[in-house]
Amino acid sequence: RQARAAFFARLPQPQFTPPAALLRADYPLSTPTWLLLNIFFICPKLVRKKHVLSCFRDALLRHASLVMQLVAQDQRICTHFISMLFGLLCNVEDGSVIDLCIEVLIQLTTQLKLEQTVHCLLDECHKELCNMPSMRDSLATLTLLGKLVDAIPPLADKLVMEHSNLMEHLLRGLVYPNEGVRASVCYLYGKLYSSPVAAEMLSGHFREKLCPLFLSILDGAQTKELQINCLGWLRQLLKYDLFVSVIMNESSLAESTEGVEGPPGKTSLPLVLKKLLLSRDETLQVASAHCITAVLVHSPAKHAPAFIHADIPEFLFEHLSSSSEVLVWFSYNCLILLAEEPLFFSKCHTVYGIESVVRSLQGSLRMNNTELHKEGLLLFAEILTRQPEEIKLFTSSTMCRDAGRALQEAVNSPVLEVAAEAVKAISAFLRKDHQSALPVQYRELRALLEAMLNRCADFSQTPLNRRPLGHASSRDSNKAILRRGKFLLSTLEGFRNACRLAMEFQSEPSAHENPFTAPGAEKEDTLEAFSEFLLSACDSLCIPMVMRHSEQATQPNLMEVFLSILHSLFVIVPHMKEKFSKKLASSSFIRLTLELKARFCSSQSHSDLNQVCSSFLYDMSLNLLSAPEKTEPPSQEELSAVSAFLQHGLPEIRSRSPESLAFLSDRQYVEGIARQRQYCILLLFYLAYIHEDRFVSEAELFVAVQSFLLSLQDQDERPPLTVIRASIYLLAICQDKDDALDEAVVSAIRKFLEGIPDLHLVYIHHPLLLRFFLLYPELMSRFGHRVLELWFSWEESSYEELDDVSSAGQSPLPASLAALFYMLRSSPSILLILLVRDHLLISAFRDGGNEDVQVGHLLLILQHLLVEHGASPSGDSGNLPLLLSLLSLVQLKNKSEQELDSMAMKLLHQVSKLCGKCSPADVDILQPSFNFLYWSLHQTTPSSQKRAAAVLLSSTALIELLEKILALTWTEVDSPRTALLCSAWLLAASFSAQQHDGSLQVHQTLSVELDQVLKVLSFPKKKAALLSAAILCFLRTALQQSFSSALVALVPSGAQPPLAPEDTALAPLGTSQVLSLVIGLQNLLVQKDPLLSYACVACLEALLDYLHARSPDIAFHVVSQPWNRFLLFTLLDAGESSFLRPEILRLMTLFVRFQSSSVLSREEVGHVLQGAALADLSTLSNNTLQALRGFFLQVQSMGLLADESTAQTLHVSLEGLSPSTSSAEPPLDMLCLGGVAVSLSHIRD
């Protein structure tokens, strides 16, 4: 009712009576259809009819259902009404009325949904087109047909099947010279070809009649309406492979006849679309790009060359700078498809367009369009992947840097799909030919890789959504894990490409570093720094990510990439390969790799993974064997043998640990290839056990190794040294206390060992291995002496690494040495073989209840040995050096000062006599003896030191020997006797100090050439820091004694010229010698060796005291040299608290004492005091506190305290903190450095 009321209210009032024909009985006046017809007849003017149609259209839009009910009441009247509307459409020329009629007709037809009505309208259209003399008047009818088919798609099939002759009229419309008519025909054709059935029926019509004409119309279209409708028709055609082939074949014919005389009209689709791309209309550009994409989708390899020859990629690259996201997206899409054709790259389109791609990618990443981001990254990745290596893509490092930064921004996207595409692009970007523009941007590459790895780490650490249990939640969880695995795999592939890039650049000297780096600047853009970053990133990010993912799922392709990365790092960072291999082995990577081979490669599948696993184990095994910690490095011949059986055996290992143990235990005849596989299995178990990865049962492995050795003996084979070493080590480690080897196995081991030139080739320093050799008499009697000799040798080298004292309450001896004492006490027959035949000495040694008693027994044994071999020490079988070494090692680790008893004094006398009978060549006896003598002079009580010095000074032969050894310094600085030279200089300094302080009697003077001493110190050797420190200690003692020692005679090297008058006061030194010595001391200080620095500062203090007492001007001249300031600041460059090192504090105290303001100003003194006042003094060592107290008191005495509050604070802190209350643990005073016993207090003070 409302709709009817509204409709009638808007109708115009009739001015005359309707015709009599409408008043027949079958047209009741009360029906709405009568009213409609009445209105059309009583409205003679067009304006009123237009108004009526507008009202009717509004009613249809607002009250469609009610109006349709009214209209559909009488089918005849409805059909007649539609016919009247169609008649009006055909007869009127007003465009707005035509549009209104078409709109009402379409609405009525679609909403009535009456087939009869549709047929009626189609018949009217067909009739009109057939009866129309000129195509000019067919525009409205054609437009109606097009929109009708658009509104009712099934009509396309009906129109083609039932009104086939209509196509001829449409063809006439295409050739009619009116673009409006052509546009309507193209629109209708587009709707007809949108139906697959109609398109198939019209395929012959298009191929025979339409194709050239269509291309010609598209090429010559002037109005946008015709262009749009042609492109719409083209888009429908391009859905079908048939029409694509027809159009492209026609285009190829047109291109082939181009330039040949003939009839015009041939047109090429690529050229037409190129023209549209060049238009300034964005709609046409988008449509053109869309059509190019539609063609290429069918077959890029077949159709892309035509577009490439038309230079379309060039214009697509230019459109990437458009502000239209749609146009940029379609351009990306086209270029991706074109990139599948090699011609796209060979014509250098990518070189021209890569800069546009990078800029477009940078711009698109600022937009909020995820699809655009993904498409742009996909294009970039395709170009980077497919670009031929011989055609350089990035012509400058700047362009390469911009590309890397764009990828870095993309990989940081919060959208996972975008980040995933960015990772793939990064992987393609890390190619040598892409990064070869010098200088290589290693810093940018590092930032890019860090961004990629951090993005992957963030994603891998995102917690999975935990829903209630069920199949759906499990499926979602599996999908999430799979998605993480794919992202991690892409990341690892990118990282692997970075590793491959680093390996390839190793052979390019020009790529090792940035040639434009300023001299002296920190070189970060170097291949070495980049390679070390790769190792660090793999260690801190890649390995943890892969391990976390493998706990949820293990993917063979992912593990293949991961292991190939680890394998490549051995080559990339060769100086770290041993350390990296040890870390991997201790992290169970041997077990992991073997499990991967057993799980995925057992049935000849995943051959690539098997090869990567084998290569990784091969290199890691050789790295571990090349840098052992507790055994001698293997020879090149041994490594070659290992390399041979690893190469053949590792690919064949595909079984799990129980099967491998069973294979190792096989006692049947083993052929060559199978034996090599056994060697590999044994070696892998050995390397795993060495690095605490015991993934097989010790008991089962113990049995398997015994069977393996017996099999070797049965077949009379001689295994490689590495196999023998591994077998013995595994037996020693896996042997239980109650289990013992069969005699046959022991005999086999002895047989193998007897075939070895020296036991050190298979020796491993481990307490259980020592116990293994000493447990079986057959092995002990044959190899016990040599094993213990090797044991002491390794123990001595291990003491050199002990720089810190043991914690309170613990024994200063390591657990390994304690184990040795236990074995010696429990097995007296060992001493019978090693030391002496006297069972009384063995009993005495066994009676020791604690370490002091044990040391006393060792002293007693040594005394008897000296009595036995004292006449000819060189004739000793080796027991004497061995026991001397043991004694020196034990004594050096004793912190407390000891009183020498009568037995010790006799022993000291005998050792000194022994030394006197030796020559400088007897290093194996002299070195431990000198260490023992030096310990007696420094690690005993003062009274014992004086008595010991008197005993040693009484040995004329010892002093003469010492003089001979000191003379060797000038010729053998880098000789193997350097350690002995160090001990000799330290002993000489100690003898001189003890003699001078105690006024001891001198029986033999010690002559030293002063010129040679000064020369050695003025031109020191870089690798002789300890020797320089020892000589400095000797010179300091001489300076403190003012060269007046009764023991030491400093003689000239040869004829010396008379001293100058100004040098008389400095005699025996000259001014030039003083200055040269000072420069030498400065050079030694710059080396920043702690021990050497102590010795240099102490010697400089003694030198300045000596100069100040004889020539204060020269002393002040030496202190005021500008180089001293540079030296001081060089030493202070080690960190914020470097001024709190004792040697630097003593050096500054020296400068303050001699008032050298040019070196250390008053303000700088204040800064030092202020820094000391702010420091936590309780953490400082006693030596540092003593040096700081001396510096403070010196500053106070010189009146240089500028800030009284700071001075007061520091004074209170120092007074309240005695040396005994310092929390810093006091270091050991006596150390063994390079086999030399050194007292820190002797060097320092």
Automatic annotation (TrEMBL):
Taxonomy of the source species: Eukaryota, Metazoa, Chordata, Craniata, Vertebrata
InterPro entries per UniProt: ARM-like, ARM-type_fold, Immune_Signaling-Apoptosis_Reg
One GO biological process term: meiosis I
Name by which UniProt lists this protein: Meiotic double-stranded break formation protein 1
Origin: domain of life: Eukaryota
